[in-house]
Design brief:
The protein has 572 residues and is α/β, with parallel strands linked by helices. It has three domains: 4-150 and 174-180 and 284-364, Vaccinia Virus protein VP39 (Rossmann fold); 189-268, no CATH class; 373-572, Trna Endonuclease, Chain: A, domain 1 (3-Layer(aba) Sandwich), CATH 3.40.1350. The chain has 16 helices and 29 strands. The strands form eight sheets. Strands 16-6-7-5-2-17-18-1-19 form a nine-stranded mixed beta sheet. A six-stranded mixed beta sheet has the order 26-23-22-21-20-28. Strands 9-10-14-13 form a four-stranded antiparallel beta sheet. Strand 9 (201-202) and strand 10 (209-214) form a beta hairpin. Helix 4 (96-114) runs parallel beside helix 5 (130-141) and helix 13 (441-454) packs parallel to helix 14 (469-476). Residues 33-59, 404-409, 513-553 and 561-572 have low confidence and may be disordered.
Length: 572
């Protein structure tokens, strides 16, 4: 199977695009039920918002039609998982937590279907819902298919936990589909302290470090291994022929009494097998080079260990919540095939950019779900107008996207910044996206009012279909904006229909913004300005939890930031 990246709802893609018994390893790190949304989190430099999330899962964990449909699907499938989920609904009611569990259950059922008989699934979760998820997995895979609960220490103790123990770990629930499954033991290298204390001997002829081990068998009741060797009758570890071979190879060292000791070389020892408690992989801090700004981004080392342990070269690895693509990069580096799915267009763009930097990736993968012609754009708009909005904005490489909670609309969907000469170094263009068929001049007039309110130099009204003559006239009435690049229509209308026909709007040159802008000090200075300085966007240090204080959030386009992987903000 070739590598492929999907943009869309993972449930739909699993059902329609991924064959049964086709995947060797599944890793998923879904949004946890923690009273806040996940995926890509950004702080707003312009509004008093603690944090908010891009709209992918904005309404996913509230009980509604989608959760009811997921619950109904599970009930139709029946079996143990249906009984468990039904019991949970009786206990939890139609709560946000129950919505989360119903939505996860129907997806986990599909994930088991696509998993090969010797495949393995890892579900990454935390204490908010891990106990419920384990019961659901028992119902789907069978309690006897539970293999491990791995504890990953993701952080040290936090000083802000005053009335409880500080939380510092995640859990990875590991389930296998069948009795036989792929397993490659992973080892922790010996520490320098251990090497000095146990492998201090050096072989003069080779310079190899070694230690001396026991040749005796711990089981005294082994008649076939009981014989005389060098004057001593004992129960030995090996048969006499093997003992003779080791002697001939110089692997036996004899004490003064003639007892043999086995010479064990350091370079032949893989290390100590890992247990189910992993404390050796630190979380990504603010200075980590691989850090991309995702609050839930996991270290590449963590995913490389999982992929190495439960798959072989050429196997297929699936991540249905691929986010910033750590699983995909690990699979690519380890020569596995992969499938990545994400419902957020910005996540797909991050993965694309990440793969460009992986040595053996290139463009050797497929990308599906993103419209490639007008007909597919219409289908996306009809299917999910919010994802259409994000996709349409990305056609123009915005530096930032504004997102409102579903149902709210303040008239600004995106922002682009352009150099505009000395004195006023940056100009600002706002975008408004309309994916429906019922549009008219009133909407254009309203957007012109938004440009005035926001004191923006330019505006781009993006519609699905070609504008009417009255809409074009309304846009033209906004006049021209004088920029250092010449006079440009202040308000332009561009339709996706025209876009695919090759008709593009007149835009000023747009530059990538420097990563040095990630300064908390600079951000405080920028708040006083009428127009925010585009050189001072901010990516999040950590996930703070809780609900956003404002309906409107600002998200930065990772493809329009020259980001070297280092967050220079001081730790907060």
């Amino acid at each position: 199977m070739s590598n492929i990246l999907y943009f869309g709802d993972n449930l739909e893609i699993l059902r329609e695009r991924v064959s049964g018994n086709s995947v060797d390893l599944i890793y998923l790190d879904p949004p946890f039920n923690s009273q806040a949304q996940y995926n890509v989190l950004f702080e707003s430099p312009d509004e008093d918002a603690a944090a908010a999330q891009a709209g992918a899962f904005r309404d996913m964990w509230a009980w509604g039609e989608e959760a009811e449909s997921a619950y109904s699907d599970v009930m139709k499938i029946g079996g143990a998982v249906a009984r468990f989920v039904d019991a949970m609904r009786s206990a939890l009611g139609e709560s946000d937590l129950m919505a989360y569990l119903a939505m996860m259950s129907v997806r986990l059922i599909e994930l088991r279907r696509v998993l090969k008989d010797d495949g393995t699934l890892y579900l990454h979760c935390d204490a908010n819902a891990s106990h419920y998820l384990k019961v659901i997995l028992d119902g789907i895979f069978g309690a006897n298919r539970f293999t491990n609960e791995i504890i990953w220490q993701r952080s040290n103790a936090k000083s802000h936990a005053y009335n409880r123990f500080s939380s510092g770990h995640d859990a990875l629930l590991m389930y296998r589909k069948g009795d036989k499954f792929t397993w490659n033991t992973q080892y922790k290298p010996h520490s320098e302290k251990y090497i000095k204390s146990h492998y201090s001997k050096v072989e003069p002829s080779t310079g190899r470090n070694y230690t001396l081990g026991d040749c005796l068998n711990p089981n005294p009741n082994r008649p076939n291994l009981t014989y005389e060797w060098n004057g001593h009758v004992r129960v030995w570890r090996w048969k006499k022929e093997k003992m003779q071979a080791l002697h001939n190879q110089g692997r036996l060292v004899y004490t003064k009494t003639g007892m043999p000791r086995y010479k064990r070389y350091l370079d032949e020892m893989k290390g100590t097998p890992f247990t189910t408690v992993w404390t050796d992989i630190p979380p990504l801090n603010s200075q980590a080079r691989e850090r991309l700004g995702y609050p839930t981004q996991k270290p590449l080392t963590l995913l490389e260990r999982i992929v190495s342990a439960s798959s072989n070269e050429g196997d297929v690895v699936l991540d249905p919540f691929c986010g910033c693509g750590t699983t995909i990069e690990a699979a690519q580096r380890l020569n596995r095939a992969w499938i990545g799915i994400d419902v957020a267009i910005h996540a797909v763009k991050v993965v694309e950019g990440r793969l460009e930097k992986v040595a053996n990736a290139g463009r050797s993968y497929g990308l599906e779900g993103i419209p490639r012609d007008f007909a597919s754009a219409v289908r996306l708009a009809e299917k999910d107008k919010y994802q259409f909005q994000w996709w349409a904005n990305y056609l123009f490489n915005p530096h930032a996207l504004r997102e409102q909670k579903r149902g709210a609309d303040r008239g600004v969907d995106g922002e682009l910044y352009f150099p505009n000469g000395p004195g006023r170094p940056w100009g600002r263009m706002l975008t408004s996206v309309k994916g429906g068929d019922n549009i008219g001049p009133a909407m254009v007039r309203d957007f012109r009012g938004v440009l005035d309110r926001e004191k923006a130099e330019l505006g781009l009204f993006i519609s699905l279909r070609r504008p009417t003559k009255s809409m074009v006239a309304e846009a033209a009435s906004a006049g021209l904006a004088k920029t250092v690049h010449g006079s440009i229509p202040r308000l332009q209308i561009v339709s996706i229909e025209d876009w695919f026909s090759g008709k593009k709007p007149q835009l000023p040159p747009v530059e990538h913004l420097p990563s040095a802008a990630f300064s908390s000090t600079a951000r405080k200075e920028a708040k006083a300005r009428d127009i925010p300085d585009p050189r001072q966007p901010e990516l999040p240090l950590s996930f703070k939890g809780g609900k956003a204080k404002s309906d409107t959030v600002l998200h930065f386009n990772p493809r329009m930031i020259d980001y070297d992987g280092i967050d220079r903000r001081a730790a907060q």
